[in-house]
Amino acid sequence: MTAYQIDDARTPKLTKRSLAPAELAALIRAAIADGHHISFNAPGSSMLPFIRSEDKIFVAPAGFDSIRVGDVLVFVQPKSGHVIAHRVVKLQGSRVLCKGDNVPALFDGWIYSEDILGRVVKVQRHGKPVRLGLRLGKSLIAWLSRKKVLVPLMNIPRRVKRVLSALQM
Predict the structure, then answer these.
(1) Would you say 73 and 61 are in contact if contact means Cβ atoms under 8 Å apart?
(2) Fold of the domain built from segment(s) 2-168
């Protein structure tokens, strides 16, 4: 993860600095604990097409009782300690099951409330807002992802485009 810092007070200049997962989690927890939102650039492609690498995601506090299937949560993955933003595909008691929209088969495992850092409330790509879907849309995406058919469905337009391109040559 990359953070920016000011090098010198006399000549403000921003520089990139990588953060370890534990540092990023601590930074998010501190901001969220004070009721603030925090934003950072998302790495990776596990949430394509809804969140792309380098999209800016905005994270807000999320009480466990307010979490719904389809929400995109930022959490600490218990096994690896990495900070991840993935969609809730199932709720069960005091835990949630999350999965990346572009991950064909693997779930993140059960995530407990103490590992949840916040909810993604806004996404920007090149400074413009990106919609994560309406309530019904987010729930449908979560259901398709849980059934492991979202990625194959998303690949259909890519295949059609390739076939059409080949036919036009």
Answers:
(1) no
(2) Umud Fragment, subunit A (2.10.109)
Q: How many CB atoms sit inside 10 A of residue 157's CB?
A: 10
pTM attached to this predicted model: 0.77
Round to whole Å and give the CA distance between 136 and 72. 14
Q: Which residues contact 159 (CB under 8 A, 6 or more apart)?
A: none
Helix then strand then coil, % of the chain, to nearest 5: 30, 35, 40
Predicted confidence (pLDDT) per residue in 16-34, tens digit: 667 788 888 888 888 888 8
4 — pLDDT class (breaks 50, 70, 90):
very low
- Residues 34-58 have pLDDT tens digits of 888 888 888 888 988 888 998 999 9
